[in-house]
Structure formats: structure tokens, C-alpha cells
Amino acid sequence: MKFFVDTADVKEIRDLADLGLLDGVTTNPSLIAKSGRDFFEVVKEICDIVEGPVSAEVTATEYDKMLEEGRRLADLAGNVTVKVPLTLAGLKTCRTLSQAGIMVNVTLCFSAPQAIMAAKAGATFVSPFVGRLDDIGQDGMQLISDIVQIYNNYDAIRTEVLVASVRHPGHIVDAAKMGADVVTVPPNVLKALVHHPLTDKGLAAFLADWQKTGQTILGR
Ligand code: G3P
User: Domain holding 128: CATH number?
Assistant: First the structure.
């Protein structure tokens, strides 16, 4: 399963990329607003840091404008993935950009029928938002299970399931169990994945015992 980070914070992206744990980045208009920076500048900077796909979202709602925006974004770098909303205009834009060899992430997916349509439009990725479904009392991960099952029924479907709106490590474990292709995770959740109190406790005990030996590994 690939790990993308869901942020437009360049410092966070750089730190995670340095760890060698990053396969891509997703941004959205809200994350760009949160960064307080120029959209094109941030996207270009992220694309220089990360080799994998970097999602940048269009903000027009009509096909012609969406297409123009998508092309403009794709021109920024070879690894830009144009993000379009799951609307009829978004799907039409997806089809046109995909046919031109541009990666497309169809976002704001909340149902299996929508995911079928994204695949039909030739999306590189479909982004079902699990956390936002959980927030309204629905089962976000059940949607992932349904989409993975549907896509697996057809060899012709190449669209990757990109689990978005991830809120906690449990979402990521479930996504891996279900065979989702990608998870996009906020930086704090990504870091939380390695935490376990028994790891901290065990490490403290090992180091305390080691100190008693008076030895060092590097001082020989
Ligand atoms: O980038 C799309 C998605 O991951 C947003 O997540 O937490 O705003 O529901 P959230």
C-alpha cells in the first residue's frame, strides 16, 4: 500500500520525505488556504521534493474552465495529478485529461456508484472520504471494501483506490486489510502509526540496562 501525505505544509512534507516513507502528496483548496501560500508556488515546491504523484485540485465547476485549469496545473511538473470533483463536469474533465496522459484524482467520492463512474472516466485515482462518512454516522471503511471488491472484478479497471479523509491509524490498518492501493494521511496520523507505549517502555528499559554495562558501541 502506498503512503501519501495529505497536507500543503512543505516543511512537514520535507521531513516525511527525508524518512523515505513518502510515495506522494495530496492537497486540496482548504489545505492550500491553511498554508497561506501561493498555490502554484507550493505545488511546484512539493513536486521538487517528492517524486511520486502530487494532487492539485481545480476550482472551476464547468468543464471548459476545469480543463483549462487542469492543463495549467499539469504544466507545473510531470508528477502533478489533477484533482477534479466527482461531478459530471469533473468526470468529463477526467476523461479528457486521462486521454492526454495526465494523471487524474477524482475526489469527493462518497458512494460505490460514484467510484464506478470515476473508473469509467479513466481516473488514475479515486478518493473516497472515509472520515467524513464516519462523521455522519455511516461506515467509511465499508465503502472502501465495496470499491476494492468492485474494481477487482474487472481487469480493465486500472483506477487506484486512494483512501482519503483518514483520521486515525485504524483507518490505515483496515485499508491495508482490504487491499486499498493508497492511503493519504495527515502528518500527525502518519507519525502516530509508529507509536506504542510498550515500545517506549521497552526501549527505556534496554537503554537503562545498557548504561549499567558501561560499554559504548562507537567507542571501540
Ligand atoms: O484531501 C482530501 C481529504 O483527505 C480531506 O480530509 O479530514 O478534510 O475530511 P478531511
Answer: 3.20.20.70
